[in-house]
Design goal:
With 798 residues, this protein is α/β, with parallel strands linked by helices. The chain folds into five domains: 32 residues; 150 residues, 3-Layer(aba) Sandwich (D-Maltodextrin-Binding Protein, domain 2); 105 residues, D-Maltodextrin-Binding Protein, domain 2 (3-Layer(aba) Sandwich); 212 residues, MetI-like (MetI-like fold); 189 residues, 3-Layer(aba) Sandwich (Rossmann fold). The chain is 51% helix and 18% strand. It is built from 30 helices and 23 strands. Strands 1, 5, 6, 7, 8, 9, 10, 11 and 12 form a nine-stranded mixed sheet that branches. Bound molecules: adenosine-5'-triphosphate (ATP). Adenosine-5'-triphosphate binds next to strand 14 and helix 22. One of its GO terms (cellular component) is ATP-binding cassette (ABC) transporter complex. This is Polar amino acid transport system permease protein. One of its GO terms (molecular function) is ATP binding.
């Protein structure tokens, strides 16, 4: 027993040692695996599949890089997984552990070498591509002075082109080389085809593929590669194990000849020793590596003072402001077309909105910018990216703005249109003076929001090489790959612009909001009261004996006969009240008299002149504007213009029609009308600051300001509280005393019987009685008696 125990005691350290060894081996092994790839048995490859012939998607990833990585994966016994990533984000993705290696034709440059480990595996260089139809054939960079060059964003040769401008072109008194950077090679080629640029500076392999496909239009003008550059696979700084392993595999592939076969397939070359030596010196010895994960605050701070960013801010503000201003106006017109009575115009509006809202802005931008390819004459304007960008943005934004305006237009009560119409304003007059300002005010919060959206949308214009803020940022980080630092600076610039613009719009919105205007104090109006009296009398211009004559008027709404053979004669200076049960056609009759409703048959004459009459089986309106001006109309719901003060409401129509009067005279007359209705003291207030009765009295003053010969009142007291009714009736009574010809639709029976010369009783669209009030009181008709009797006869002190 003791022996056994001894044995166990003796054996334990041996077993423990074995366990520790196995565990150590396992840990080492695991670490080994995780050191080379993120996921065991898998090689994740970061690749931009939009760069043929190096890497592209045709069902599966194809091109030189995918082919090479598959070979490498085979040799290392790893499953290759491709992670499609845009080139500008590819290094940040590597350092964020999204993949193990970048195989995406990544040019080796000193800034990039600070952030990743490079394994050079290819050599390429730039060539110049030109349009075949033209005679211009540049052979070197020196031949590019004064020309426009398209290039892929962040290409290695861009700094070199700038050097040529500085050290060669300027010294020879030649013009600068203008470089336009595009997101990818196809866009750069498109710019060349549509004559936006003169030359495309392109990678030799890409250019060869281009010429293979578009040989009838494009040609490589250089004899050999300009400035050869290295292309490398990139690894995380800490992952030299994987780099060494893949370097070993590539060496094996080179030894076996497989690598050369692959190079030949794509017309590429392995880097020359001379170029590799240069890289050792430039890329690794000279620059201190950037520590992975650190944020370069100094670089970020420098970007806040970068003049290129500030210039781009000016471009963004100009582009977004112009887009917004033009879009607001054009959107309003598209929205108006949508409200038209002509179905053809409505269809145009709807189709426009449908089409441009469905079209992605990016597609529209590229299409507009490249339109000169289809329509060469347009290149005069459209080859300028600012103009192309503005046009595409305006086309797209107009559709969105039209929808915002449509909502605002629908929110404006119909009475506002009608009030403008009865004041004799033309359609465009009503739109300009009454509807547009109100629509704009309603739509302003949504429009302001759209402004902010446009500011951010301008970043898309970088696709056609307009150097706005994002493009400046992209140009920087595609070279140095300090993506986070650059994008933070970009974000700061956008936030700054949006904050300033929002502040300006908010001030603007406050200015527009009449509810926030402090006009509550009853400001004394500076007027000469003696002069007011001179203008306050009603001057009727009575022509002929009869003010108004309706002959056999009929009006149908759908299948309902609303006015049935109405004949009515109104002599000058008389007051006619129209009474009758609800729906009997009283309002329709009144609205037909001033043309707010058309009639189906019959004639309407005013002062002996035809106003509506039958011609070729159609009812026509003659001298409509002139006739309307002879009629003042007061609505049940006042219909004052809420964005104008009381005085502005009253002066609106006389100022519009002018009639050779000077503005001061119009103002005095308007004040006189306000004095007449007892509203002079409130002249500077806005309608929302008045009671219902006060608003109705302003509405009467507004109708009187056009100096009408006939006044129509459509239930002027129906919307008022009983205490406010009498202040309005008092004004109407005074007008009748002055001899104003009036037609009043009312339910105020006592008032009607007191003030009227005749009372018209309507039922089912017909005039049943048209009598003197005293005579009507003696009626034996039970129906009429019942109607008059059923109405409460309130005692008014008027
Ligand atoms: N725009 C319209 N479209 C269709 N029908 C209408 C329209 N305007 C009025 N009507 C119809 O015409 C008839 C007469 O309406 P109207 O407003 O002239 O009557 P009213 O006598 O003024 O009534 P109330 O005293 O209630 O205002 C009603 O049956 C009404 O429904």
């Amino acid at each position: 027993m003791n022996n056994n125990l001894f044995k166990i005691d003796f054996l334990l350290p041996t077993v423990f040692f074995k366990y520790v060894c196995v565990l150590f081996f396992l840990i080492c092994n695991t670490t080994y695996y995780y050191a080379q790839t993120l996921k065991k048995g898998e090689l994740a490859v970061g690749i931009d599949l939009t760069y043929a012939p190096y890497a592209y998607l045709q069902g599966t990833p194809r091109g030189f890089d995918p082919d090479l990585m598959r070979l490498v994966g085979e040799k290392l016994n790893l499953k290759v997984v491709f992670k499609d990533t845009r080139i500008e984000n590819i290094i940040i993705g590597l350092n964020a552990d999204h993949y193990d290696v970048i195989a995406s034709a990544l040019y080796v440059n000193p800034q990039r070498a600070q952030q990743v480990l490079f394994l050079p595996y290819l050599q390429t260089g730039g060539v110049l591509v030109v349009r075949k139809e033209e005679s211009y054939r540049p052979l070197s960079l020196q031949d590019l002075c004064g020309k426009k060059i398209s290039s892929m964003k962040g290409a290695a040769w861009i700094p070199k082109l700038n050097e040529v401008t500085k050290n060669f072109c300027f010294k020879k008194n030649k013009q600068t080389i203008e470089i336009k950077e595009y997101p990818s090679a196809p866009e750069a080629t498109q710019a060349l085809l549509s004559k936006g640029v003169d030359v495309q500076y392109e990678d030799a392999a890409v250019a060869k593929m281009l010429v293979d496909k578009l040989g009838d239009k494009l040609e490589i003008s250089t004899q050999e590669m300009i400035d050869p550059v290295l292309i490398g696979l990139a690894f995380k700084k800490e992952n030299s194990t994987l780099k060494n392993q893949i370097a070993k595999v590539i060496q094996e592939l080179r030894n076996s000849g497989e690598y050369q076969q692959l190079l030949d397939k794509y017309n590429l070359a392995y880097p020359s020793q001379e170029l590799l030596n240069k890289y050792q010196w430039e890329g690794e010895a000279k620059l201190t590596p950037i520590k992975n994960g650190s944020f370069n605050w100094n670089y970020f701070k420098d970007q806040l003072f970068n003049t290129d960013f500030w210039k781009a801010c000016v471009i963004v503000i100009e582009l977004s402001s112009l887009t917004w201003c033009i879009g607001v106006v054009s959107g309003f017109f598209v929205a108006l077309l949508g409200q038209c009575t002509f179905s053809f115009l409505r269809t145009i509006s709807k189709s426009y909105i449908w089409f441009f809202r469905s079209l992605p802005l990016l597609v529209l931008l590229i299409f507009v910018y490249n339109l000169p390819q289809l329509w060469p004459k347009s290149s005069v304007l459209l080859s300028n990216p600012f103009i192309s960008g503005l046009l595409a943005l305006v086309l797209s934004e107009t559709a969105y703005m039209a929808e915002i305006h449509r909502g605002a237009l629908q929110a404006i009560p119909k009475g506002q249109y009608e009030a403008g119409k009865v004041l004799g304003l033309s359609y465009w007059g009503v739109m300009r003076i009454i509807i547009a300002p109100q629509t704009f005010k309603i739509a302003l919060p949504a429009l302001a929001n759209q402004y902010v959206t446009i500011i951010k949308l301008t970043s898309l214009v970088s696709v056609i090489s307009l150097t706005e803020i994002l493009l400046v940022g992209q140009q920087l980080y595609t070279r140095n790959f300090l993506v986070m630092e650059t994008l933070l600076a970009v974000a700061i610039y956008y936030i700054l612009i949006v904050t300033i613009i929002t502040w300006i719009i908010n001030r603007f919105e406050e200015k527009f909001d009449v509810h926030k205007k402090n006009t509550d104090t009853d400001e004394t109006i500076q007027v000469d009261y003696e002069k007011l009296k001179e203008y306050s009398n009603i001057k009727n211009k009575n022509e002929g004996k009869i003010a108004l004559e309706l002959k056999n008027v009929k009006k149908v709404f759908g299948n309902t006969l609303v006015l049935n053979d109405i004949s009515l004669s109104v002599p000058w200076g008389k007051v006619i009240s129209i009474i009758g049960p609800s729906g009997s056609g009283k309002s329709t009759l009144l609205r037909s008299i001033n043309g707010l409703e058309s009639i189906d048959t019959g004639d309407i004459e005013m002062g002996g002149l035809p106003f509506m009459f039958k011609n070729n089986n159609k009812i026509k309106k003659s001298n409509k504007k002139l006739q309307v001006l002879k009629i003042g109309m007061v609505f049940q719901s006042y219909n004052l213009f809420p964005h104008k003060t009381v005085l502005e409401n009253v002066m609106l129509a006389p100022l519009y029609h002018k009639k050779n009067k000077d503005q001061e005279l119009i103002r005095i007359h308007a004040l006189a009308m306000l004095e007449k209705v007892g509203m002079l003291i409130h002249a500077n207030k806005y309608p929302h600051q008045l009671s219902g009765g006060q608003q109705q009295r302003v509405a009467i003053a507004r109708a009187l300001a056009i100096q009408p010969s006939i006044m129509l009142f459509d239930e002027p007291t129906s919307a008022l509280d009983p205490e406010l009714v009498q202040e309005v009736l008092k004004v109407i009574k005074e007008l009748s005393n002055e001899g104003m010809t009036m037609i009043i639709v009312t339910h105020e029976m006592k008032f009607a019987f007191e003030v009227s010369d005749r009372i018209v009783f309507m039922e089912s669209g017909q005039i049943i009685y048209n009598e003197d009030p005293q005579q009507m009181k003696k009626t034996q008709d039970e129906r009429l008696l019942k109607f008059i009797g059923n109405v409460a006869l309130v005692e008014y002190n008027i």
